[in-house]
Each structure stands twice: as C-alpha cells, then as structure tokens.
C-alpha cells in the first residue's frame, strides 16, 4: 500500500464523518481564579460547523486518489 492510497482512505473517512456529524465541538478554558480555598474556572464549549461541500470535496479527492493510485500500480 503506497502513500497515496493511505491518504485517500483517510480523506474518505474524514469526508464521511464530516457529512455524518456536520462538525465538531471542543471545550476551551477562559479563565481561572484561585482565592485560597475557593477556585473558579470558566469553560466555554465551542462548535465548529463544517459545510456540506467540504465533506463532499473530501470524498471526491479521496476517491480520486484511490482510483489514481490503483491505475499507476
């Protein structure tokens, strides 16, 4: 298995996940206050939405890499 096929498979998986979930979320720490025995920490949850064309593009490029790598071998 060459590098182009591996990258193609990874792009296909990422494109499928992008279409299935539509994005991802992460948690970011804003600030932390420590007042002796009392401690405060603010965490903010962010969501990144991925457009449909991005997922379709990943699928097309990944499929192209798999087909192109298969023909060269």
Describe the 3D structure.
This protein is an alpha+beta fold and 73 residues long. The chain has one domain. It is built from two helices and two strands, in the order H-E-E-H. Strands 1-2 form a two-stranded antiparallel sheet. Helix 1 runs antiparallel to helix 2. The radius of gyration is 20 Å and the shape is elongated. The termini are close together.
Largest sheet strand order: 1-2
Radius of gyration: 20 Å
Query: What is the percent of helical residues?
Result: 40-55%
Count of helical stretches: 2
What kind of sheet is the major sheet? 2 strands, antiparallel
Report low-confidence residues grouped into runs of 5 or more: none
Domains counted in the coordinates: how many? 1
Tell me the fraction of residues in β-strands, as a range.
25-35%
Number of strands: 2
Shape: elongated
Spatial separation of the terminal alpha carbons:
10 Å
């Amino acid at each position: 298995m060459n590098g182009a096929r591996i990258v193609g498979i990874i792009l296909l998986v990422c494109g499928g996940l992008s279409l299935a979930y539509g994005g991802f979320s992460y948690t970011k720490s804003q600030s932390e206050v420590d007042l002796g025995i009392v401690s405060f920490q603010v965490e903010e949850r962010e969501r990144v939405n991925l457009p449909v064309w991005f997922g379709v593009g990943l699928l097309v490029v990944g499929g192209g890499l798999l087909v192109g790598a298969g023909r060269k071998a």
